[in-house]
Amino acid sequence: MKYLICSIITALCTMICVVSSSSPAAAAATSSDKIAYLTFDDGPSKSTSRILDILQENGIKATFFVTGKTSEHSKQMFHRIVDEGHTLGNHTYSHDYNRIYRSVGAFKADVERLNRLLEETVGVRPNILRYPGGSNNHLSWRSGGRHIMSAITREMSALGYQYFDWNVSSTDAAAVIQSKEAIVDSVKSNSSGKKQIIVLMHDMDVKTTTVEALPEIISYLKQSGYHFDVLGKDSFTFQFLRPGNR
Ligand SMILES: [Zn+2]
Asked: What is the distance between the alpha carbons of residues 187 and 64, in angstroms, rounded to a whole number?
């Protein structure tokens, strides 16, 4: 009887030991799979410098889907983005829906124009894209017809570009100036339950609350076990237009 009790206690101890030692390991394995890709569209702007400072303070990298801006300040920002280890993505030179979505050729020319500017300025030719309005936007229909986005996405993929929509919107474009709280809350609720997240934010003069929300967003995502990475041609992507829908 005494032996039996001893055995039960030993077995229980072993179980507790196994459970307590495996739990942190299991949690670490799960959290290391969680990756957040922060993305900033439409820059450079007056906000870029502050965004870069915050990223630097937190030791994390992000992806900037930029447009064709040629001021000295913009060129300095292109340099800072690259020099500080972030990634540049192509968001078209003009960001003008009527111009870029008129035809496949017009879109290609606009993307190429920005890539030339970036190559001349910082020696980088992005092979990653974000379509203004997202790959499923309907505004393009006005200038290019209902099937323009499928035609463009097909052609750009054939040319070797990968494109990225988003699965977490910060909703900072839902109002001219969205409240900081709404931006933070939206990232919190939209990221819930997702292992890999592409977070849509905007780098624009007017988006001051995005900059204010950024430290809280980063801190929340870190606490939730996310690591941060930049997008690349072979990284995780999220696309509104799935191949089956094209
Ligand atoms: Zn945009």
From this structure: 18
